[in-house]
Amino acid sequence: MKLAGNILTADGWINGHLTIKDGLIAGINRISGEIVTGAPCLIPGFIDLHVHGGGGYDIMQGGEAARVLARTHARFGSTSVLATTMTAPPAAIDAAFAAVAAVRRNPPADGADILGIHLEGPFINPEKLGAQPAYAIRADKEFINRLNAAVPIRIITIAPEFAENLALIPWLGRQNIRVQIGHTLADYEQCCCALQAGAKSFTHLYNAMSPLSHRAAGAVGAALAHARYCEIIPDLVHVGKGAMRAAMRAIPRLYGITDGTAACGMPDGQYRLGENDIYKQGNAVRLADGTLAGSVLTLDKALKNFIRLGDSLAQASHRLSAYQADYLGLQDRGRLEIGLRADLNIIDTHYNIIDTYIAGRRVGRDKD
Ligand SMILES: [Zn+2]
Predict the structure, then answer these.
(1) pLDDT one-digit tens code per residue, 90-123
(2) How far is the CA of 40 from the centre of ligand 1 (A)?
(3) Of 95, 160, 202, 290, which cross-links 223 as Cys (Cβ 3.0–4.6 Å)?
(4) Of 48, 235, 259, 300, which residue is the catalytic one?
(5) Which CATH number fits domain 45-333: 1.10.3720.10, 3.50.50.60, 3.20.20.140, 3.40.50.1980?
(6) Ligand 1 center from residue 312 Cα (angstroms)
């Protein structure tokens, strides 16, 4: 199969053809080194490293939730995802892992590839739960080992101000689990200790963490000063434009995540997030008390929002694909290069997604 257009390669834009064979990119042939105005653009498929649900289902519900999530977010350009669990009693987290494992054994043909799990809590600060239910505990090697054997944990979000959590960071790194600082009241110095111990990123920068003030830089200040990688929710609801721009300038590889809930891709109404009811209205989803509870963001909108904030299309694309692949050490995706998985999005001149391919297979999409 041959796709024509402006192609974002590792060396920048070219105009030409991209050939797909056996699920991989078999060729990239240049017609011209110049972009052709009005032609569709081919960019890598999006990689969402923090997503709880979509299409009405939440990962903590178990069952087919991971399948529905993978299919729902594929319609919006995500070609790889990390199913993300919530703080909950250990048995509930075990059950969620078992359900994701079952879906991974029989994955949907038209869904994003489920790379593994982002374990968001339960090793977080009970005073900084955000929308996480109140089951925070301290890090527990045995529990993590058990979960990791069921489905690979690729990312873990912890609050490093607790000695047990901080102490486990080097061990987590050796298990090839990326440690992120989040749902935390750690001060700047405590975050620096966690970074020195091997923490690599921050979870939804600005949200559910100690803020930056001029004499107490907090987790936000540690991220802006030291992080190479950092996640952010670019829905322009969780973080305002000014704070978005500050992070985009300060952090070399700031990347977008959805933190998406069951309400993604769904009409306004009531949904579940972990054990809580949440209410979607327009671009936001909240607990009954008004606390933001994850998002309704999809990464096609994230692309447009980064561009609105000043990114070029190439830069915005990197924030949704290449940086995530590099962060997790994924060699087989995240870029348009010969030999990599044919995971890509074709977009029009208004940055709308026209088509998505996952391992060379075209994803059906609603045209509304
Ligand atoms: Zn989350």
Answers:
(1) 999 999 999 999 999 999 999 999 999 999 989 9
(2) 33
(3) 202
(4) 259
(5) 3.20.20.140
(6) 27
